[in-house]
Amino acid sequence: MSSRSACRSTRRVRLTLYRGHGRVRRASVTMNGEHVKAARNGRSALLDMRGYRSGIARVNVNLRLDDGRTVRFAKRFVTCVPQRDSGK
After folding, report:
1. On the CB side of 76, how many CA atoms lie within 13 Å of its CA?
2. Is the whole model's pTM more than 0.85, yes or no?
3. Which of 19-23, 42-46, 68-72 has the highest mean pLDDT?
4. Within a 13 Å sphere around the CA of 25, how many CA atoms are in the beta-carbon half?
5. Secondary structure class of 46 (helix, strand, coil)
6. Element housing 75 (H / E)
7. Number of separate helices (H) and strands (E) present in the chain
């Protein structure tokens, strides 16, 4: 039986927001309810998960395109996965 130790995440993720047709006019990104700054062009956001405890981080993205359409999606990321014993 292995014991799971509590760990803190050291993970950073570059999330690509939109690759479709049209330009992004405004991007709103939240991770676990906290606002995350998106790139100026609205095409990416840097999710900094450092310091979060192990678990699932929920990311919600709302995009407003220049033609007025709204694109919304959500993703989940594992913040911290305990290391496996290498057997050495």
Report:
1. 4
2. no
3. 68-72
4. 8
5. strand
6. strand 70-78
7. 0, 6
The answer to whether 55 and 70 are in contact (CB under 8 A) is no
Sign of CA pseudo-dihedral 84, 86, 87, 88: negative
Are the C-beta atoms of 58 and 32 separated by less than 8 Å?
Answer: yes
Convert the pLDDT of each residue in 28-49 to its tens digit: 999 989 999 888 878 889 888 8
SS3 29: strand
Q: Which two tokens stand for residue 22?
A: 């049209």
What is the band of 59 on the pLDDT scale with cuts at 50, 70, 90?
very high
Neighbours of 42 (CB within 10 A): 19
Check whether domain 12-78 has CATH 3.10.180.10, yes or no: no
Ordered by start, the domain boundaries in the chain are 12-78
The pair of three-digit structure tokens given for residue 18, joined into one six-digit string: 């939109």
Residue with tokens 């570059």: 14
